[in-house]
Amino acid sequence: MSMNRWLFRFSSLLVMIVWWMSLGSSHVFASVTVVTPPTDLTKVIEVELNDDYFNPNVITIPLEGSTTLLLKNKGKNEHTFTVKKLGIDVVIESGKEKNITVKPKNTGTYELICRYHLLKGMAGKVIVK
């Protein structure tokens, strides 16, 4: 048997072995499910905006990580969720809801108001600790 013929058969055999092994390994990897925990753990707090009040009217959020506020306007009027010192000013139409994500940089107690109904007492506090 010539050297060229032997090399051709050997390389063909190697190609078939690699091909056969890749078929088996792709089947195995396709059936494996890898679950990784989320790296950004976000706390969710639901806040109801109703005619002339927030519920809860004192909201405590952690300094670390992100907090999502689910703002639900259950009132008949349009309201705002405004915390000036945190840079939050969101308008929520009657019967609608909005999600906002808050990632505060400093601890403290911040004034929460509805710009439209502050004179009717629609106010609260956001505490970051």
From TrEMBL:
Name of the protein described by the UniProt record: EfeO-type cupredoxin-like domain-containing protein
Xref: PANTHER family: AURACYANIN-B (PTHR38439), COPPER-RESISTANT CUPROPROTEIN COPI (PTHR38439:SF3)
Statement: the UniProt record of this protein carries the keyword Metal-binding: yes
InterPro entries tied to this protein: Cu-binding_ET, Cupredoxin, EfeO_Cupredoxin
Keyword Metal-binding: yes
Organism, scientific name: Bacillus cereus VD196
Domain EfeO-type cupredoxin-like, chain residue ranges per copy: 14-128
GO molecular-function terms, A-Z: metal ion binding
Keywords attached to this entry: Copper, Metal-binding
